[in-house]
Sequence to fold (280 residues):
Amino acid sequence: MIRDFSTADKRGYLRLGFELDSRRSILRDWERHAPTIVQQALYFDEEWEELPCVYILSSGGPALEGDRYRQVFTLAPHSYAHISTGAATKVAPMREGYCSMQTHITLTEGAYLEYLPEPLIPCRDARYTSCTEIEIAPTASLLYGETILCGRKHSRERFDYSLLRTTISARRPSGEVLFSETSLSPPKPTRIGEMGGYDVRATAYALCPKEDSQAIYSLFNPVQSADTATALTTLPNDCGLRFIALGHESGPVKHAVREFFSLARLRIKGRPLPAEFAWR
Fold:
């Protein structure tokens, strides 16, 4: 049984609100509680100079037993933003409890958000759960990605975590449910359907109008190589696409996700993703 130790440990909280002003999208308001840190929006995207880019930092080290994190992102009509993290998230070993992340995303009419955090690294005996709830208007678009490593492989930890569960769901402002998906990753996966011998898994979602998702799907070319495998499927209710990338190392998998994001953004906004910074 998993016991709840949340009253004794870190409770990070972050709220970001974006809106459109006369020239560009801006981070209008934000609230953060330690150990979660956000300083300001930056405008460094060479392909889209008006795009505010926000990095989420943490002063608390790895996620520990009992930690609870919550983040809320809201985009006003026709605003846009890119959100990422400053570094990978490590989940420390645990004896009985667990740590969790809750994310709430609200996209109003015509809004556009890219959310692509750095990978999650579950250490030996880690227990981690995440729940992402999305409310998205029919004319809004969301590119959402998450990457999970098998552990500290070069420290001889490979799928040694105890619990790894992620849940994502989306609905319209009217309450119509678009889809809901839960992924329970077992320790020491052995079946081909689980990881197929790979060590890194990335899942990305492109929630967008039907005409955009159909165009992205027609342009996508799956990859099957010794290092990386990718695939793309449609989501229920014509709400978008689900992208999967598997690999042995994080670098090629992250590159595959960025290529998918670039393909999607080029179709939705007419602008590709810029080249990734060399140090990321």
Remarks:
- The longest strand covers residues 11-20.
- Residues 1-8 have pLDDT under 50 and may be disordered.
- The chain is about 10% helix and 40% strand.
- Helices lie at 210-219, 250-269.
